[in-house]
Amino acid sequence: MRHITKGFWLVGIAALIAAPLVIHNSYYLHLMVAIAILSILTLGLDVVFGYTGEVSIGHASLLGIGAYSAGVLVFLFNLGFWYALPLGLVMGGVFGLILALPALRVTGPYLAMVTLAFGTIIQILINEMVFLTHGPQGITLYTPLLVNLTEVMSWLPSSWSESLPSVKRIKEIQFFYLVAVALVFTIWVINRILRSRFGRAFEALRDSPIASDCMGVSVYRHKVLAFVISAVFAGFAGVLFAYSEQYIAPNNFSFELSILLLLAVAIGGRKSRVGPILGATIIVFLPNLLADIVLFRIVAGVIAAIALVWFIQSLVKRSESIRQRILPIILCLGFFGFSLWLKQITDFKLAIFGVMILFVVYYLPDGIVGFFRHFMPKPKPEQRHNSVAAKNHAAGFWNNPIKSANPEILRVKGLKKHFGGIRALDGIDLVVQSGTIHGLIGPNGSGKSTLMNLLTGIYNPTEGQIELDGQSLAGLNSSQIALKGVARTFQNLQLFNELSLTENIMVGLNHSYRSGFLATAFALPQARREEAAARQKSLEILHFVGLADQGDELAKNLPYGKQRLLEIGRALALSPTLLLLDEPAAGLTAPDIVELMAIIRKIRDHGITVILIEHHMDVVMGICDSVTVFDFGQKIAEGLPSAIQKDAKVISAYLGQSAT
Amino acid sequence: MLELDNISASYGKVAVLQGISLTVPEHQLVTLIGSNGAGKTTTLRAISGMLRPQSGQILLAGEDISTLPSHLIARRGLAHSPEGRRIFPNLSVKDNLIMGAFLRLTGKRSRGDVAGDIERVFTLFPRLKERHKQLAGTLSGGEQQMLAMGRALMLNPRVLLLDEPSMGLAPKLVEEVFATIHRLKAEKITMLLVEQFAAAALEVADYGYVLENGKIALSGTAAKLRKDSAVQAAYLGGGS
Amino acid sequence: MSILFQLIFSGISVGMIYGVIAFGYQLTFATSKTLNFGQGEALALGALVGLTAINFIFGTIWGTYIGVGWSYLLMIPLVLVFGFLQGTVVERLGVRQAITIKSEAGWIMSTIALGIIFKNLAENIWGRDGLKFPSPLPEAAMTVNLGFAEFRVQPMELAIIFGALAIMLAVEFFNRKTVFGKAVIATANDREAAGLMGINTTRVISFSYALSSLTAAFAGVLVAPITLTGATMGVVLGLKAFAVAIIGGLSSGMGVVVGGLILGITETLTGYYISSGYRDVPGLILLLLVLAIKPSGLFGRATIKKL
Question: Which one, of C223, C247, C204, lies nearest residue C16 by Cα?
């Protein structure tokens, strides 16, 4: 699979090199430049829209920020392209940060609302700040200067010292190559980012934001990062755009363009490299399409034909989704009919545009790339790494957690959590000894899970203190607490379903990386080494939980019992000092439970303290060193498992009072 | 009155119910017991349309309701006091009860005496009367449980589903809840009760089903189940 | 001093319009966690339909007897009905399916798309130029004397303030006092549990969209007499209302009124004391500040995460 995609990209690059030699018409060359520039932007937008699922309606303005960075440099300081390039990137990033930092603090449609407002206001500001932007009159630019390559060539053999090589304005074809290089560079960098821990984090936070935070992968920070990445590429595209058009004005960066860009990513196909490029191509041709009624009819006809074929295919296959396909096929045919009926098109341009968006949202949610993927044979999971190697180093991943001198790893004092009038936890004191398995039992709703959520920062306590190894956890959020060494599993599994087993564990290993974002984006040696080390370590962990031979399988395809084990493995990747297991045996079969108990014991033997919530009494009694019993939000008993079993209070709590 | 025939259901890929069949006869109290994660709550959710079963039939008074949405099932006279109470926190206590009678007030079910029924709920739970103007979200856990049960009763249901009415309550309140269930039984209300306190549930019920890993493992009259050694060992604490 | 009062007064009337639109956002956000990104178009359509209606009513033989003022009042119910229907269409075409398939971003894009379509249709029906809306009240400003300050008030601005308050209070009254209104709150609190009560929550969501568009359409005929009426008149208003909804809090009832006043007054002050070109800037800055300091809005409640 991989060498096929590699071949695909090589053909693409070859086509880019050959294009200007084949196409001499400067109009088409200019269109290709426009496609490449918008592709850079849509590829970046896909990181936000496709991967993190947040909607930005302000990317046209970020393009404008980049373009005006170039424009203002020319207008005020007469500085050209090579100064504008870094400034455009930085300005894109800065504005991205200003928008994302506040807007992503809450989940919901906030980013969409904020970016939409930003878009309008930026346009107003560009119009108003005449001293800076020349207002509505716009700014004219000339193509970039470049050292005269032919001159440099002729000098090389002789001497360097005579004079500096002269510079001259590059021609259209050279600018095309410049943009082509920028596009290839963009694809390369985005591929690096998405295949790194950052890309995994983007996928993970969509699958389960809570689990991401509890693995020390802050959802907020990574969403902001994703937005800033896309803003930087938008700024980059903006500079190129300014020099490609050689004239910029406020109207170039309208609300409609922002929507068009979103449509490009959606129609081409999210979460792919080909999709956004395809989408950019479509939106570049869209104005032409919507200006020429004949062309419009042809395209509508082709779409209707494809839809018809697709429909007939589903009839032949007798697939169950026939009824769902009737409406889109009728819409496609109707659209074709509408195109034939229409006398002229310009007045209804926007309405047609709107209908396209609706169609893509409802019937092409995975875009064109996703649509055609259905017809392709499913690639087998590639065997990327050698799982045998892992076995030799099995259990080598134990980081020997730094054993604290403190015998009491966790101290909880007077902890209360109230939800409105409900006292889910009503003044709990708890001490957990280092290196033990501490059981928490009690009837449903007695507050065990609430305690778990308080310990991991998912809830903030109404009152009371939590100390981990002598340090207060007050005011820390989930991901900070995770990085302090508290890992957990979830009663309702919270795996990253769309990631492989190995990748699930690697998200947990996110804390082990030292190399920064740039090192990762440019695939510097340190980053590559760390990635390889993390992959190796994840295999070792998988081996420990007995899943080493399924490393490339997607987590969602695992049977239920194995998913529980994977979650434990992922928690171990955090190298925790304290591991919280929330009903790990729920729904497991008897042999699975035996395996689970062995694993929990082994974890304890490696010095990790375990807190275990469990309803299976045989598990609790079998492996716990001490047990605390909860009822109606209070602690009703504590002690050795054998003593707890005989405690009258505990027995009555389990049987319900009226039984006594 | 209520009949489940070979019901299967799942969350995503995880199969939770694997062919459940059970019957709740009119005027009887049937209880469903089993360990956590066995599928008790899921069974109730499937009955009241909160989760669509993948296969099987659910008959309410002879009519198949397995593909209907919740609100149409309620219209046919099924009330569900769900796990976690799910009262409406931003409505007052009284308005919560009024919502329980929504179908009666809007003419979808026979109206009867709504005001009188509210008073009846208040006599059943005097604490609610004291707080009838208060926002429901400010009630304590026990009061919210009473409200959830009272709200379900306001439908004048043919069948009442109760999901863990004892959850998170102090022992005294658990006792009170079971006393109420006793009274409802005396009023001949048809009920399906899911409980973690198996002993208490079997005490009050006429008939019981034991759920294990999404399947009915055992069933019988409550008296018989109470004496069953396997049930005792697993749920009644008899083993220890 | 007088000028300051003058500015504050116009700020209040602009702010109330923002508030009404933001109120509409809240209505749908409460029941469905979605909102109409084409709310500005709903407003413009309301105003345009109102314009056609008022011209028709005034143009009939009774027009000369009843005058513009009564024509305006007679037109309002028509506009409300139209807004109600328009909202139903938006929900049906733009939101319902997105909610069913749990598409995160789908509803944002589809409501934007519907907004674009509505705007385009409006342009084709009513043309691209701003139209004059007959004012039901005298256009000459009255002078208000507070003793220490004197300022001029357009009667229509006063009407805006009272009209906006009236519609919000009417909807609030409906929600709090009627069984159907309580069903809306119940659905907003807990959709599943509301279904168990026999409430058709799909219809409640549809209804909340209808109400939301209704308030927007009403806002449209409120502002129309003091501005130009046209397909694009709602774009900026819809955006400002976003800011207001976030500043006041998407989940808080009356926060939008305060949010609207804050934004309206800041804008008129900025417009006068700094430059009319920059009057839109403080909105964005306020918006970002509020999100940074109190993301749930000045009057919003923080939501509890559920596991």
Answer: C223
Instruction: Please check whether residue B31 lies inside any domain of the structure.
Output: yes
Beta partners for B159? B78, B190
Nearest-by-Cβ selection for A419 from C37, C123, C304: C304
Q: Determine, yes or no, domain membership for A459.
A: yes
Within-domain flag for A266: no
Boundary (domain end) residue, out of A254, A271, A301: A254
Here the CATH number for the domain that contains residue A437 is 3.40.50.300
Residue A67 in this model has a pLDDT that exceeds 90? yes
Residue A225 has pLDDT above 80, yes or no: yes
CA distance B221 to B203: 11
Range of the domain at B6: 2-235
Nearest-angstrom CA–CA distance, B212 and B217 = 6
Domain match, A179 and A241 both:
yes
Residue B127 lies in a domain: yes
Task: Report how far residue A405's alpha carbon sits from residue A385's, in angstroms, rounded to the nearest whole number.
Answer: 40
CATH of the domain at B211: 3.40.50.300
Measured between beta carbons, which residues in chain A are less than 8 angstroms from residue C287?
114, 117
Whether residue B153 lies inside any domain: the answer is yes
Cβ-nearest to B36 among A583, A645, A646: A583
pLDDT of A394-427, one tens digit each?
A: 455 665 555 556 788 999 999 999 988 888 898 9
ipTM score of the complex?
Answer: 0.93
Helices A293-317 & A274-289, crossing angle to 10 degrees?
140
Tokens 């759920």 locate to B211
- The distance of Cα A236 from the centroid of its chain, to the nearest Å, equals 21
- Length of chain A (residues): 660
Range of the domain at A202: 21-254
What does the alpha-carbon distance between residue A634 and residue A427 come to, in Å, rounded to a whole number? Answer: 7
Tell me the nearest-neighbour CA distance from A383 into chain B, angstroms. Answer: 25
Chain C interface includes B151 (CB < 8 A): yes
Tell me the angle at which helices C179-189 and C201-223 cross, rounded to the nearest 10 degrees: 110
- Residue C270 carries which side chain, given as an amino acid letter? T
Q: How many domains does chain B have?
A: 1
